[in-house]
Amino acid sequence: MKISTLCTLPLVLAYAMGGLSLSAAAAPAFEVIERFDQSLYTQARQQVFDTAASWENFWKKHSTTPAPEVDFRQYQVLMVMAGERPTPGYGLCVGRIEETPEALKVHLQSTQPAGDQFLPQVNHYPGCVVKVPRQNKDILFVPLKEQVVTAYTSVPTRTLSQITNSLVLEPRKVIVRDALSYQQLWQLHHPNQSEAPPVNFDQEMVIAIFLGEQSKGGYTVNIDKVVENSQGIEVRYSVAEPKPDEMVIQILTAPTHWVAIRKTDVPVRFSGP
Question: Over the range 23-53, which residues count as b (16 or more CB within 10 Å of their CB) and which as e?
């Protein structure tokens, strides 16, 4: 597989929504499997991975988290990185893929924070991971022609539950838009409390994050902010872990945070560690 770029990418970039997409020329579908805003690589780069070994080796140098699982018998992986950015809110991803007789052209898409946002001056290194069906063609990364500024508005939230002893023991991110699903999820989460907090599903919906079972206390998950832009809803959340020398309770825990927001049918994505 030959990998090439059509020109150098001095990228000034930001969060970009991606997902399953088909070009007008019946290009192969692609799927964004992970977005990130931190990397151990500090320079902009684009790379294609054809084998699990090369992918795992690269990921270990990029992040301390486990690599996303990919069946390389069926897929290839595209990794795009923006390089160093001065604040949160920048990102880079694949916008669309165009198929020609000779190659697949990967068109990148970027956004950057709106100019009126106050953001902490902390360096970020955004990018994303995309998988595509295996191809025998060359893959060309097409440079960005323009920046896309994504302004957003904050969405008010109302906490319904935030505890560390949920009975949902596997990590989950859940969006609930109807009363029956809400009651069923609540019974899984907290069966000893008969009444779930009231939610008007004509006007509201519920977002819940379950961190999964942890070996001891000191872990929490928090939905910090929910924002909306032209691409949908973004749920920004954080996870706190106990410090190595911190005294914590030595029992199994399962942190969770539930919030209610106004009801909407737009796409929802989660942004966290």
Answer: eeeebbebebeebbbebebeebbbbbbeeee
- Token pair, residue 57, equals 């080796």
Pairing type for strands 268-271 and 232-240 reads parallel
Residue 47: name the closest of 101, 93, 4, 16 by CA.
4
Residues 140 and 103: their CA atoms lie apart, in Å, by: 7
Q: Is 227 helix (H, G, I), strand (E, B) or coil?
A: strand
pTM score above 0.90: no
Cα three-residue angle 252-255-256, rounded to 5 degrees: 150
Could you tell me where the DSSP H helices lie in the chain? Answer: 52-62, 179-189
pLDDT per residue as tens, the chain (273 positions): 434 333 333 333 333 333 333 334 456 789 999 999 899 998 999 999 999 999 999 999 999 998 999 999 999 999 999 998 888 888 889 988 998 888 889 999 887 776 555 567 788 899 999 999 988 888 999 877 655 555 678 899 999 999 988 988 899 999 999 999 999 999 888 867 668 899 999 999 999 999 999 988 888 999 999 988 777 899 999 998 888 887 778 888 899 999 999 999 888 989 877
